[in-house]
Amino acid sequence: MASTYHEIYSAWESDPDGFWAGLAEEIDWFEPAEKVFDPSAGVYGRWFAGATCNTCYNCVDRHVERGRKDQAAIIYDSPITGAKRTITFEQLQAEISALAHVLRDKGVEKGDRVIVYMPMVPEAAIAMLACARIGAIHSVVFGGFAAAELATRVEDAEPKVIISASCGIEPGRVVPYKPLLDRALELSSHKPVANIILQREQLACDMIEGIDFDYAHLVGEAMAAGVEMPCEPVAATDPLYILYTSGTTGQPKGVVRDNGGHMVALKWSMKAVYGVDPGEVYWAASDVGWVVGHSYIVYAPLLHGCTTILFEGKPVGTPDAGTFWRVISEHNVAALFTAPTAFRAIKKEDPDGSFIGKYDLSAFRTLFLAGERADPDTIQWAEEKLGVPVIDHWWQTETGWAIAANPVGLGQLEVKYGSPTVPMPGYDVQVLNDEGHPLEAGTLGNIVVKLPLPPGCLPTLWQADRRFKEAYLEEFPGYYKTADAGYVDEDNYLYIMARTDDIINVAGHRLSTGAMEEVVAAHPDVAECAVVGIADRLKGQIPAGFIILKSGVTKAPVEIEKEVVALVRDKIGPVAAFKTVVTVDRLPKTRSGKILRGTMQKIADGLDWKMPATIDDPAILDEITDKLKGRGIGA
Ligand code: COA
Ligand code: AMP
Q: What span, in angstroms and rounded, lies between the C-alpha atoms of 382 and 388?
């Protein structure tokens, strides 16, 4: 099929409001919008101002009313526990309604926040949708974060209720969640009125009388009583959720997502970007704690009337490198979306792809990759072994859906390895130099998006308009700064090369080296430190810390290094994958005292590096090179 991408992109360019108004017809509104886009509202304008709607109604109830009640809405497949469960749209509606009733009973009203701190179980998605049903704002916190990170989010979001579970399960170990939650609540000055805890059979937890309530008991009671909680009309511009993501400091950014624009953009993306029809099975192998999980495990597939897979496992080791193919075959998955790192892990375990032949993958049409740069080797391996198109696409927590993609539903465009292809309608992507002037094709620069951002993207940060402007809008007036650097080629294909800030990407997880430095610097024996992201064959990048010890410290450096590793795990969490610390005598700095992190990173990666003209003392770089060599890192 010839691609209609160019026509559709032009249609958006010539009449953006008409374009989005047309797509809004796919959504059921209680009241239609007074204005498709109101440039005078919010920080840079608001989408579907004046409209009222409910995201849960559009994800669930309307499908029950229109012939999908017996279709599977969620298939929970958990190779790590051996559990499997299929939930139809009708069953999903009943359980969401019951939990929504429980939340209301605990005093949760429209606009109140609810933190969801859960592993990959269906109750996590049910919790999100129950909040949406009553107009409460959920904030999901990824299970691999430590108590201190959870506490920061509790402090900022001020949740009325927290929904959590007794434990998560990682290969070889059960992760008790409840002690992490209890610790977070000790650290936070804000306290919720109730914690609703899902007790899992792998590890039950102690409950605190009057504060902790049993999920199954409360929801079971509400279901037995046959309670029905109607969908609360909310403004299209009201927040659906807050999702915290790494910023350049230890204080994460609370990305806000609205209800109306989010639904319009995600619904459109399912057919146009992913080429999937209602009734088909869609699988995003991510975690509900990340934006991919929000958009493509929960909201988009359900908005579109698809069956979504909720997978609790890893691409390898649960039990083997054939798990993905088993799930695709068993549930007739049409499209899989995951991070390249998952495929690097599979390729490492099963380089010949011998597991693939054991399964019938005839329903499987397309593999989508995002979250980090997709290296051409991995793409080619997947294409060759699976025999389906492999589509890289680029987006961010802030945007909620693809900025650039190869929209297979509009007819696939040529794949160019290393490029996530072209901008989606709604995104006028440009490459600017540091002074804000457009750069010509092929020249590396700052990737920005002309305002307004399309529906679905963040309107602001939670209670922090000022920080939103400073972080994203002020450096290039009139544009949103993606903080990614890259270029476009002569066909307008985008190439995303690196971040322009201190964010690193570890196994598709976004982490701030600045936040890690804050933790490392707090170790009593550390005088000064730097954390940089170094290349890793499996995870893309991993953090490496360089520390200078305070004078007079007598403890062995190796002991302190171990303590620093433990400290980051304790304060940020295992997800940081912070395992490398090197004690050095000095850090390389410019004459004005700025640490030369970029040069240290190049040395650690074994890349060519130039002596920075502004360096204070060039000999320090040789010292660092020697130290790293001693650790088997770098050239
Ligand atoms: N709860 C508690 N701990 C968690 C966790 C969770 N939800 N998720 C991860 N962790 C822990 C892991 O157990 C691991 O701990 P360890 O240091 O004790 O081994 C650590 O955090 C790092 O986890 P992870 O990044 O998952 O690395 P891994 O070595 O366990 O697995 C991959 C590597 C490639 C298999 C894994 O990263 C993966 O499946 N990636 C898929 C991509 C993905 O989901 N990306 C998300 C954005 S799309
Ligand atoms: P997150 O907010 O966690 O989704 O991370 C967003 C960041 O991940 C982006 O700003 C990029 O740096 C990186 N990223 C995501 N997708 C891609 C991709 N397809 N290619 C290159 N980098 C990507």
A: 8
For residue 485, which ligand has an atom nearest its CA? 2
407 ligand 1 Cβ < 6 A: no
Spell out the domains of the chain, with CATH numbers in brackets: 5-313+393-486 (3.40.50.12780), 507-630 (3.30.300.30)
Q: How buried is residue 435: exposed, middle or buried, by Cβ count under 10 Å (0-12/13-18/19+)?
A: exposed
pLDDT score of 610: 85
Helix axes 178-187, 147-157, angle to 10 degrees: 50
CA of 575 to the centre of ligand 1 (A): 6
CA-to-CA distance for 265 and 304, rounded, in angstroms?
A: 11
Confidence of residue 473 (pLDDT cuts 50, 70, 90): very high
Where residue 484 falls (left for φ over 0; alpha for ψ -120 to 50; beta otherwise) is beta
Ligand 2 centroid to Cα of residue 371, in Å, is 4
Closest Cα to atom 47, ligand 1: which residue?
508
Minimum CA distance residue for ligand 2 atom 14: 372
Q: Which atom of ligand 1 is nearest to the CA of 371?
A: 48
Distance CA 373, CA 377 (A): 12
What sign has the CA pseudo-torsion 323, 325, 328, 331? Answer: negative
Ligand 2 neighbours, Cβ below 6 Å, are 245, 291, 370-374, 392-397, 420, 482, 484, 496, 499, 505, 510
Q: What is the pLDDT of residues 116-127, one digit of tens each?
A: 999 999 999 999
Question: Which phi and psi angles does 498 have, rounded to 5°?
Answer: -165, 165
pLDDT digits over 405-463, tens only? 999 999 999 999 999 999 999 999 999 999 999 999 999 999 999 999 999 999 999 99
Give yes or no for a cis peptide into 230 (omega within 30° of 0): no
Compute, in angstroms, the gap from residue 613 CA to the centroid of ligand 1.
40
Atom of ligand 1 lying closest to residue 173 CA: 13
Pairwise pLDDT comparison (623 vs 579), residue with the higher score: 579
Per-residue pLDDT, averaged over 608-619, amounts to: 84
